[in-house]
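[job 0412] stage=fold_complex status=start
inputs:
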Amino acid sequence: MEIMSQKLLLSAKEIDIILHRLACQLIENHTNFDNTVLIGIQPRGTYLANRLQKILVDEYQLHNLNLGYLDITFYRDDFRRGEKPLEANKTDINFVVEDKRVVFIDDVLYTGRSIRAALTAVQSFGRPQEIELLTLIDRRFSRHLPIQPNYRGRQVDSINQEKVKVNWVENEGEDAVYLVSR
Amino acid sequence: MSELSVNHLLGIKYLTNEDINLIFETADHFKEVINRPIKKVPSLRDITIANLFFENSTRTRLSFELAEKRLSADVINFSAASSSVKKGETLIDTVNNILSMKVDMVVMRHPNPGAGVFLSKHVNASIVNAGDGAHEHPTQALLDSYSIREKLGEVKGKKVVIVGDILHSRVALSNIFALKLQGAEVKVCGPKTLIPKYIDKLGVTVETDLIKALEWCDVANMLRVQNERMEISYFPSTREYTQQFGVNKRLLDNLNKEIVIMHPGPINRGVEITSDVADSKQAIILDQVQNGVAVRMAVIYLLASKIKQ
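[job 0412] stage=fold_complex status=done
writing structure:
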């Protein structure tokens, strides 16, 4: 067993404040979301997407939100390069993205390769007018590709041996973000 | 996700139930993909696949080719009718020549049972058996089970009768292996001359009365009489076969339940199944064809992920 230490980066309270800020920033740019669709990136981006949707619907009465989930497994650039086979998740997009303003939602932006895959994958559903990126944690200085978020929760400086772990009440029983080092 | 326990798909008898579940779960994702406006994913863009068909095929060859193209693999096709096989080249030589063009995977149909197993021992590529003589046709059995799972929720505990020419059918043998592995009950039904003598050793029961078999089952898989594999007469006439073992609408309407009708194609309308049955809502024949692409995508994807770079 490797010895791991973890440091709390964000508490439940801080996450709640950040989610509300991100929701407000989305409203600032998309007003009533008439022509906007939110897409959570599978698997971990869907929790964040659901939370933001809940805030937008419950607290800002935006009832006509389009929310979908996009799986990028078959579009990744590391097929056959890893130790383990890649695990696919469900894509659930029941609307067309043609001429829509798309907001990708993911929990951690690290190398940018997942978002690169998502940019390719979403083309299967049409040609969006524009694509933005919202991410809870932006691990800067670790990008492999020229991809930056439009909305970020918190910027984190971390070294490659460290891992950022985002926990959600729905899945792990608590809202928290940890920096795990081994 | 775990991975397949095998490096080749040579037959259902080499698979585990976990393998089948993994293939089906992966096929679910691909079924969603092939119903998108753009039906293609780039996963296998660095893989080249050779489709070697030493025996005629329409559906299976098109289905494999489509599956490969939807995964973005490069595809080369070969059919024995127009090849050097006619000039006397051996199977290993033919395949090694093709592999020296840097091919990663071979999908092969061959008239000789065991051709895939033989090839897997002698050449360095992933082999997918697309039918070897009267032995196995694993992707057909997988898509049949996948279609049952889609229609009835699960395969386990379901009663399936396979009707017709069991003796010459690789579809029957692969289906028996696949269905038993998943915990279904299997019966075979047909003229005694077309049922192998010791088939009960595979854990299936034999019924020669079609009506009894239909009353028992949830699913009837109707096979074609393979006249091209018969050197002698196994039954007096096609008309008599149809009278005893052909399914028609009247027969189905007289049952006290609605059973699912399957057929691996090609159909001989009016022989093993009448047109009104083949085109009825009870028949899932065209669903089987659609599922065939998704299941073959899953098989190819999972095998390709085991090819080392």
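[job 0412] summary: Strands of chain A lie at 5-10, 36-41, 66-70, 101-109, 130-140, 151-157, 163-167, 176-181.
[job 0412] exit 0
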